[in-house]
Amino acid sequence: MASNMRGLTQFIADIRSARVRELEEKRINKEMANIRKKFKDGNLDGYQKKKYVAKVIFTYILGYKVDVGHMEAVNLISSPKYSEKQIGYLAVTLLMHENSDFLRLVVNSIRKDLDSNNEVDNCLALHAIANVGGSEMAEALAEDVHRLLISPTSQNFVKKKAALTLLRLYRKHPDVIPAAEWALRIVSIMDDEDLGVVVCVTSLVMALAQDHLAPYAVCYTKAVDRLHKLVIEHEYSAAYAYYKVPSPWLQVKLLRLLQYYPPSEDPNIRSVLHNVLQTIMNNSAEPSRNVQHNNAQHAILFEAIGLAIHLDTNSPLVGTAAVLLARFISSKETNVRYLGLDTMAHLAAKADSLAPIKKQQNIIILSLRDKDISVRRRALDLLYSMCDVDNSELIVGELLRYLTVADYALREEMVLKIAILTEKYATSYKWYVDTILQLISSAGDHVGDEVWYRVVQIVTNTEDLQEYAARVVFEHLKQPSNHESLVKVGGYILGEYGHLIANEPGYSPIEQFRILHNKSQFCVAATRSLLLSTYIKWVNVFPEIKPQLTSIFERYRHVLDAELQQRACEFYALARRPEEDELLQNVCEEMPPFPPRVSALLGRLNQKHGDTNDKRIWVHGGKEMNLEREAAAKKTTFTEQQPNGNGTASDAQDIMGSLAGLDLSTPQSDPSQDIVPRVAVGPNIDRWYEKLTWNAEGVLYEDVQIQIGIKSRYQGHIGQLAVYLGNKIPSPLTSFTASIHVSDPEALSVTFTKIPPSTIAPRTQTQQLLQVECKKMFTTPPVLSLSFLAGSHQTLSIRLPIVATKFFEHVKLGATDFFERWKLIGGPPRESQQVFPIELDSVGQLDLPRYKQVLLGHRLNILEEIDPNPSNYVAAAVLHMAAEGKVGCLLRLEPNREAKLCRLTVRSTSEDVAKEVLKLILKTIGAEKS
Fold first, then answer.
1. Do residues 796 and 812 share a domain?
2. CATH number of the domain within which 711 lies
3. Are residues 459 and 573 in the same domain?
4. Among 308, 472, 583, 813, which is least packed, fewest CB within 10 Å?
5. Where is a 1,2-diacyl-sn-glycero-3-phospho-(1D-myo-inositol-3,4,5-trisphosphate) bound in this sequence (predicted)?
């Protein structure tokens, strides 16, 4: 670029040749003055504007402030010449921030470039949007970027940039992007033939799916299908093989995407996933000599292990993974050790049994002293997740020993985790107190207030522990130096429970007072305030040291700190009241037990982890915590309180904010539950559906593009549907997606036997088999949802003709048996009846053959010569259900030629079966509205 502009080349040369900064500034000031004059005079052609704006950009890159060239950059964006447009876009993205007023002037120019047929113009506009990405620009141009992404005429490299631009906009301004509305169209691009496009779109889908699980649920099947093609069928171009590994970046993204959703119940998808994961583990069993190949394989392997853990921690795949992880955490490569420890922590956080991990306990503990801090951090996380009642004392002891030499960056997190583990797995309260006090003594400044607050809460709520806690705290305070947190614990516990040990040798009131007061001179005002509260409590229970305590109050009445002065004055007044005065006793009553609450330490630890762009799908801390995380909504509560009123008001507010615990009482709805699709309706559609409810085969749907046919067969509670999908147009149906929505999965199961194809060739037909199982009585048919590209994106949801009568089996009954059972069942509610008008044929006769055809179509067995009236029909059948067994159903159809009416009566031992069979037969006859 500079070679074509001699003035710019010379300017850069002059700057580089400046020997001191003063000469450089002088040259820049001279050039900026000349540029201002040129811009002010105007009448510059495109080349001159480009040259001067390029100089302004170079000056800005050097770190100097520039206040010229903004308007000229805006004008350059509209230039038809690429070189001028390029400089204009470069200036806009560098010189203007996202809230700049100048950006409003370029929105129309950017939109024009997005609509251009020139791919280079498209890319320049996309770069500008992604780099600046202000809210106004996102609102104005997000639709245009999306249109460029889904356009069938867009080049692959434009689609890639459009996907990443949308990703950038969504991360900055998620409210601007209608993610749910665009879901099907964006997911359909995951079937693109170009793997580069698929990688970029998958990155976008990963971000969108984390916040909109249900709308993007169709991506689950797409991801499984693409993994199968890459890993099993090796369908990829050579350009996307990285050291003989097919597109490792895409594999990693797809494996991670699958972990956002609960494991699929579809046995076909589970089988395909199992084969994929098994192949990945087999491919990584033996390391290669090529480092790049190993890196790619390891990246895929660790994500595959994470998915295997997510799917089923008891599967053989996870057993194989545990063996591999044991090898990786001892690797000589730092990166492999890091990934091994992190993945093993994932296993520890989800597994039912920690036995395979405990075998490596010594290696994990040694990893705390690894040369790399990232590995040490992962080892800490793993020890935290694998801790249980059996090994808690060992792990907590090791962490305490390591705490004294640990990195400062790790100490605060270590303190929180030690405190949580000590409380969670304490075999005795005495061990808990000893460990926490040792922790406070060792960690010093890294112990937050929530740690000693929790100690106070537990001691206050545990009466048997109070005397022991007072004695142990006193012994710790005898040490030459103590951290302030320990002084706070000592002040609170001795103030409340010091009288429990006051009669023992060495623990007299005066000794308690001296040891605490000697520490106070090294403490801040907030801690001294707490100690004043301790002293007033002692005035009430230790009258023998009242003079010493009163003198302390009198001395503090004249300090400059307002909080200390106020407390001292109030306590001095209380201390001077007569001994028989009840006011002092009431004020200094022992603190009541704290109400039950969740540990604030967990909230503090989760605050430290925070959210990133890629949200965690599990948390450290063992299976129990992950089950709670999945079953309950996180809700921050501020019900924690201070042990007493010590400290300033502002300090109290800060502490209260840091005591955000976890309220696990609110159930969380399953975000992955499918959205009920909007079913297609129309006279022909309804007629086709109704016909197939009592026929085994026929057309279910047809339009100018696609035809859907059905063939079915049923045996007991099991059925099989063959769905024929025909492409009627001379171009392929691409990005084809098929999914089944069942309103009550516990009553009815409908699954594909194989993943549907992503493309249907022109004027061809493909067949998909569906396995159907009736578990309980159901009333709502499943819905088949299709989406595909045929010039534009098409979606279709159509009811499948799977109704309760499909699972009927003929029953043969004689007249005596039939009427005995008919009377035994009785009337309502186990009887459903409807009277409806009928039409006579052209010769005035009843259309009895049609009624017979309807009953037979619904798999009812017509019993001949049962009813004395030959015009009546009597039928019987048994409904088969996997979970509830068999349910009998009896039917009588009684037409009346003279009245032109017909009475249909259905009786069953199940009220629901009787109602549903009546409704289905009436719909088939066409009399449900009568």
1. no
2. 2.60.40.1230
3. yes
4. 583
5. 6-7, 38, 47, 51-55
> Are residues 444 and 571 both part of a single domain?
yes
- Start-to-end Cα distance in the chain: 82
Within this chain, do residues 648 and 742 fall inside the same structural domain, yes or no? Answer: no
pLDDT at residue 665 in the model: 32
Q: Do 537 and 466 reside in the same domain of the chain?
A: yes
Look at residue 667 in the predicted model and tell me its pLDDT. Answer: 35
53 annotated to bind ligand? yes
Query: Which pLDDT does position 684 carry in this prediction?
Result: 87
For residue 606, give its domain range.
600-662
How far is Cα 730 from Cα 763, in angstroms, rounded to an integer?
A: 6
Domain boundary among 802, 835, 853: 802
pLDDT digits (tens, 9 = 90+) for 828-857: 889 999 998 887 766 667 777 888 899 999
Helices (H) and strands (E) in the chain, counts: 38, 18
At 252, the pLDDT band (50, 70, 90 cuts) reads very high
Contact present, 173 and 166 (Cβ < 8 Å): no
47 is in an annotated binding site: yes
| Block residue for tokens 């009333």 | 779
Structural domain contains residue 225: no
Q: 62, 68 in Cβ contact below 8 A? A: no
Shared domain check, 693 and 809: no
Instruction: Indicate whether 791 belongs to any domain.
Output: yes
pLDDT tens, 808-817? Answer: 999 898 888 9
pLDDT of residue 657: 32
Q: Is 54 annotated as ligand-binding?
A: yes
Residues constituting the chain: 930
Boundary residue ending a domain (529, 564, 587): 587
Chain centroid to CA 472: 45
Residue 771 sits in the same domain as residue 916: no
CATH number for the domain spanning 869: value is: 3.30.310.10
Q: Is the bond preceding 829 in cis, omega lying within 30 degrees of 0?
A: yes
Question: Does residue 5 or residue 172 have the better pLDDT?
Answer: 172
Number of domains present in the structure of the chain: 4
Predicted confidence (pLDDT) per residue in 541-550, tens digit: 888 888 888 8
Query: What pLDDT is stored for residue 641 in this prediction?
Result: 37
Highest mean pLDDT among 49-53, 95-99, 164-168: 164-168
Mean pLDDT to the nearest integer, 468-492: 87
Is 815 marked as a binding-site residue?
no
> pTM value?
0.79
Longest dimension (CA), the chain: 121
Q: Is 536 domain-assigned?
A: yes
6 in a labelled binding site: yes
**More confident call, 503 vs 653:** 503
55 labeled part of a ligand binding site? yes
The residues, any chain, with a CB within 8 Å of residue 680's CB and separated by 6 or more, are 701, 796, 797, 798
Q: Are residues 434 and 563 in the same domain?
A: yes
